Amino acid sequence: MKRLFTLFAFILLTSSAVFSQNCPADIVIGNRIIMNYATATEATAAFANISTVTVIVNGSPVTRAIDQGFGTGTGTRIRTVLPATGGDPNVLYNGTMTMVLADGSTAICEYEDGVLVGSALPVSFLSFKGQQTERQIDLHWATASELNNEGFEVERGQEINQQIRWESIGFIEGNGTTQEQQDYSFLDKTPANGVNYYRLKQMDFDGLYEYSSTVAVEYAKNDGSVPVGIFPNPAREQLTLIDGEGMATIYNALGQPVKQLIVNSNQETISLSELHNGQYILRVLKDDGAVITQQFSKMN
């Protein structure tokens, strides 16, 4: 169950604050879990967002799917499909209700005498950033608060055929439940040349997870700048390389090598007269083993 949020809020609220929009204003438990919202608009939106709810009944957790029922003339009520086994008549609910939303995320709602008094989401991110340091990429992130946080799986992505392919490259333990700021770091010692994408898969102890925002860090094996420059692009009869010393190979759109040469100077011009109009990839194998790629097009 994936959650693609840029930020997550874990804020314990008072009754005068604004609660998570999915938490009902009040709950009663009986032969059904009945969730009452302030307006029909709120109820309709919550019904579209919520997959299941879990409450504590007679000391044990009870999880139920929901469908939409309506109070007479109000349209503000959602009730569960299956009995809550809480018995009848209905009683005001005290405790925590955990919702699994349609996108796989969770929301936690706290009730006293059936009335909403607080809500939470697992992790509140303050920042997530990365930068190149020498021949590696240093990632840093901070959280304002955490709930049931087992840790963070660090994922790196590479853009292939206009899609980002993700892989796990490490895990950093979280701090469980805390309302104090926590700072984390991770060192990627094997980044790829070019743009590296990173995201955090925040894992709960109960197996649920959510994704952070994605950051992009450009990596160059030499000195942090783009190691091979090309101009003009689009090109006509020739292409000039800057800092492109090494074995240069040009590939067509089918991935076939169409031209190869050794570049010995920090600025060299390549003739393109024998190439057809179209898209090409320049691949330079540097003396230190780094492989740099640049895309260009030829147009006469």
Structural summary, described in words:
The protein has 300 residues and is mainly β. The chain contains 1 helix and 23 strands. The protein has one helix spanning 40-49; strands at 26-29, 33-36, 50-57, 60-68, 77-80, 91-92, 95-101, 106-112, 115-120, 123-133, 136-160, 163-178, 182-188, 194-204, 209-211, 215-219, 229-231, 238-242, 246-251, 257-263, 267-271, 278-285, 291-298. Strand 8 and strand 9 (115-120) form a beta hairpin. Mean pLDDT is 78; it is low at 1-19.
Short overview:
This protein is mainly beta and 300 residues long.
- Let me know the number of strands: 23
The CATH class name of the largest domain reads: Mainly Beta
Summed up, the helix count is 1
Derived structural class: mainly beta
Looking at the chains present, what oligomeric state does this protein adopt?
single chain
Distance between the termini: 50 Å
Order of adjacent strands in the largest pleated sheet? 6-1-2-5-4-3-7-8-9
- Helix content range of the residues, please? under 10%
- Approximately how much beta-strand content do the residues carry? over 45%
